[in-house]
Amino acid sequence: MKIHLQIALVACLSACTALQAAGDSPVDFVKQIKPILADRCVECHNSETLLGELNLQTRALAFEKRKTGPVIVPKNAEKSMLYLVLTLPAKDKKAMPATGHRIPKDEVSTIRQWITEGASWPEGEDGVITPKHKKAGK
Fold first, then answer.
1. DSSP letters for 39-107
2. Which residues of 16-49 are buried (b: 16+ CB within 10 A; e: fewer)?
């Protein structure tokens, strides 16, 4: 009887651990981060407008060395300007996005999680972000 109880307990704990792990799946850049950056960031931070001397269209451009320090510090959201500027009060002149609506807290949390997980950003087409709203005449 004691062995059956132990087996049942181990099975229950294993199932609980598996369910918890499934809920903590890694952030998917293409499905979760790329749409946020495309909709809310790349409109201003691209090769044409280059506001703040920041281009977020590819991993290589986003991770370029900058005088003001790194934009993304993999595994350290608290030192990543990309995350920090999203958490500043709206009235702060460094708060992003500078115009339009703030990024919802759940999306900011997703960006934080992505950076904490290592900021995985694929190469090739999956890693290229184009502005969603092209300017008229361009």
1. HHTTTTSSTTT-GGG---SSHHHHTS--TT--S--TT-GGG-HHHHHHHS-TTSTT-SSSSSPPPPHHH
2. eeeeeeeeeeebebeeebbebbbbbbbbbbbeee
pLDDT, greater one: 131 or 78: 78
User: Does the pTM exceed 0.70?
Assistant: yes
Torsion of CA 96, 84, 53, 37, to 10 degrees: -60
- pLDDT confidence of residue 23: 55
pLDDT score of 8 more than 70: no
